[in-house]
Design goal:
Blueprint (H helix, E strand, L loop, with lengths): L2 E5 L3 E6 L21 E6 L16 H15 L4 E6 L1 H13 L3 E7 L11 H9 L4 H11 L6 H14 L2 H13 L13 E6 L7 H11 L4 E5 L6 H4 L1 H14 L2
Parallel strand pairs: 2-3, 2-4, 4-5, 5-6, 6-7
Antiparallel strand pairs: 1-3
Length: about 250
């Protein structure tokens, strides 16, 4: 995967973006990173951004494998894994597959590793967002508590349409909803921080608090105030401070 490297610190971190955007989804935190303590690799997953022309199955399991492969390419024998939303599900799979290589996991407003129990109507609504801007904007609005500006939401959607291959956007949607990647979750030892947003009406805090402990009993679940599904945009400085404190404690 293509990646943007920031920092030169000894602690290595691979970061994956979510459904609506590429690595630039994290641009709001770039200036706040501790570049002396950490080296970050912000990647574009297959079918997005600078990895747009990389063919693949466009599944969450594949993205997890690519994350580990990127660390291999970089020569990182151990690393921290960060993912947002659908790739929050991918980093749970990385924790399962990566074993002792994974120093810590930070899952931001993540889809749980299980198959989501959505009925056909709900699944079809998500599928319609692949083609219909009205549906996509409704999903974005619900996930941010219907409290952010229309300008921000339309810009987010525009960038998502521009950066992603339509077939990748649709396939990742099916994968993050339908695929069960939870086998082996009970063997994970890596410290895990799960961040929920106070106003996230999509990946709700109460859902994460109910599901995550059944998969990863040791995970720390924190609800961050004054944010919905996109804390890197909504509360960037607070997010960086908390993530880096957690990763530092796991050194």
């Amino acid at each position: 995967m293509w990646h943007k490297t920031i920092g030169s610190g000894p602690e290595k971190v691979v970061v994956l973006h979510g459904w609506f955007g590429d690595h630039r989804a994290y641009s709001g935190i770039f200036d706040h990173l501790d570049t002396a303590a950490f080296t970050y690799a912000f990647a574009d997953i297959r079918g997005y951004g600078n990895s747009k022309n990389i063919a693949g199955e466009y599944t969450i399991g594949e993205a997890a494998g690519d994350m580990i492969a990127l660390a291999d390419t970089l020569g990182w024998s151990q690393f921290h894994a960060i993912g947002h939303s659908m790739t929050g599900k991918a980093v749970q799979k990385v924790a399962i597959d990566g074993g002792s290589r994974i120093k810590s996991v930070v899952a931001l407003t993540p889809v749980p590793a299980i198959s989501l129990p959505l009925d056909d109507e709900a699944f079809n609504f998500f599928a319609s967002a692949c083609d219909r801007d009205e549906s996509a904007l409704a999903i974005i609005g619900e996930s941010t508590g219907k409290r952010l500006s229309k300008v921000w939401m339309t810009n987010l959607l525009r960038r998502a349409r521009e950066t992603s291959r339509p077939e990748a956007f649709r396939s990742y949607m099916r994968s993050f909803i339908r695929d069960d990647l939870s086998a082996g979750a009970d063997q994970v030892k890596a410290p895990m921080l799960v961040v929920a947003g106070e106003y996230d009406g999509g990946v709700r805090a109460d859902m994460l608090q109910a599901v995550i402990p059944t998969l990863f009993p040791h995970a720390v679940i924190e609800v961050i105030a004054n944010t919905g599904h996109y804390p890197m945009d909504e509360v960037p400085l607070h997010l960086v401070t908390r993530m880096e404190a957690f990763m530092s404690a796991a050194r």
